[in-house]
Amino acid sequence: MDRKVSIAPHAIALTIAGSDPSGGAGLQADLKAFQQNGVYGMSVVTLITVQNTLGVGRVEMLSADLVCEQYDAVMSDIPPRVIKTGALGTGAIIAEVAARLKTCGCPIVVDPVMVSKHGAPLVDDAAVMAYREVMLPLSTLITPNRFEAERLLDRKIGSDLDDLLEATQQLQELGPEMVLLKAGEFDGSQLHLFYSGETIVTLTLERHRTDCTQGAGCSLAATIAARIALSSPEEDLAKRTRAAVDFGIAAVNHAIRFAPKYGNGC
Ligand code: PLP
To answer: Keyword set for this entry (predicted)?
Structure first.
């Protein structure tokens, strides 16, 4: 029988990130978020942390060479529809990964992770400069929290809305097409500012009191990446990204509301 088997095109996402063996953050969180959204996930490891819910014991950065070999292996075989980056470790890794991302041919969501929730540095001193110089200009969307935004802008950000709006605009001037600034608590709510390249919108969510937020940033950026992978490449990228951001912050806000306490810490 002459039967044509047509394989549906797959939504595939690649994360380039560090390992959190407790499964709350890092590439483990990213892969779970991809899976939850029905997206096939791949991961390139940049660093290995030894940690559980009580804290981080050790952080070992991989060589830029080893990171790039993993990247080349998967990219030459399984092209993703979106790439997400998390903890990138060193300025050297950022420089070499960025050189490759120039020709990746898909949207890039950059979560400029700098320290773990427990305060362990996840990047070296050269990384902030490398983010500014080579990574942000390549990014479709960056998702810094307030601390990361201050490091990238090299200035303090005030608590008033005007300064948050100005900081969002200044982040976009560093090169990314779009910015999601996770501003944190504002007037008793959780505030995010999204700059699409044209206008800034403020997105306000209910704030939930819990310490169990390890990996919330990773999960948000990974969910946004997954929703971009699921959206039609023919549609306007800013529109696809805005829809992905709306979905991602609602999903992660819900997850934080019902966050279980799995370990002895949080
Ligand atoms: N990546 C790794 C490997 C981590 O261990 C952490 C936090 O511990 C993060 C990223 C950032 O996690 P969060 O989403 O809580 O900012």
So the answer is: Kinase, Transferase
How does pLDDT run across 178-234, given as a tens digit for each residue?
999 999 999 999 999 999 999 999 999 999 989 899 999 999 999 999 999 999 999
d(C-alpha 16, C-alpha 109), whole Å: 10
Q: Report whether residue 26 contacts ligand 1, using a CB cutoff of 6 Å.
A: yes
Residue 245 lies in a domain: yes
Atom of ligand 1 nearest to the CA of 214: 15
- 70: domain CATH number is 3.40.1190.20
Query: What Rg value do the Cα atoms of the chain yield, rounded?
Result: 18
Count of structural domains, the chain: 1
Nearest CA to ligand 1 atom 6: 116
- The string of DSSP codes covering 157-198 is --SSHHHHHHHHHHHHHTS-SEEEEEEEEETTEEEEEEE-SS
In a domain, 2, yes or no: no
Q: Whose CA is nearest to atom 2 of ligand 1?
A: 26
The answer, yes or no, to whether any atom of ligand 1 lies below 6 A from the CB of 46, is no
Cα(209) to centroid(ligand 1), Å: 19
The answer to whether residue 3 is domain-embedded is no
Q: Is residue 4 part of a domain?
A: no
Ligand 1 lined by 43 (C-beta under 6 Å):
no
Complex ipTM value = 0.88
Report the separation in Å between the CA atom of 7 and the middle of ligand 1, taken as the mean of its atom positions: 36
> How far is Cα 4 from Cα 84, in angstroms, rounded to an integer?
35
